[in-house]
Design brief:
250 residues, mainly alpha, Serine Threonine Protein Phosphatase 5, Tetratricopeptide repeat, 2 domains, 14 helices, 4% strand
Length: 250
Amino acid sequence: MYTVQVSPGIKVVTRITPNGCVASFWAFSAFSPEGRAKKAEKHIRSEIKPSQINSELMAAVVRNQIEEVERLLVAGSAVNETNAAGCTALQWAISFGHYDIFKLLLAYGADVNQPDAAGRTPMMIAGRKRSVAMVQELISRGVDVNVGQSGGVNEKRTTALHYAAGHEENSKVIGILIKAGAKVNATEERGKTPLFFAAQTGSLDNVRTLIEAGADRLVTDQQGKTAYDAAKRFGRSEVAEWLLSQRSAY
């Protein structure tokens, strides 16, 4: 990052660290299908620059045009083509929840491990998407569930389990990842475990699933805070009270 003084008291901060493909962020359920589609069209028409949906294949994927996707693949479109943000057709299929296209891309050799420019993998996006089917398919193809993110702002070492835990009502995906060997006490660069993410999101089911799998509620981050503190800070009183009640149980 660098800072430019444009006038007395006013500074402009520009991020020059690649922050990856927005497909990961759009996987959140907070983005409605309609809103996601409108944003995508703006990228396709290059109304948002730099566009992150800048190939015919990616455009067909987000538009859920499976016949067009197959036509392009048969015609020789590169299934693993990326852009400056590191977006791939597979990442977009996961972000939009287009399972049939996801499977088609895999059949044509889509790389299940290819990260975006910030190091977010397809599994991380699928975990955030709450897609049980996609997560299971990726696991069946040998994806390492413990890969940590290599870049991003305050995101290094974040795993798929962190992302899954940070999305409300996602205990099924969390359980699948743990069964596949995901480390429940893995820490990202700020020292936060998946339990922190679940606590600040306020999903008691996520928190319980992690605790039952061996998550340590007493782990502290680099600021000396616990998951309980995270729940309190974000106003998640139900989660905070439950974590407090577990002092004698765990």
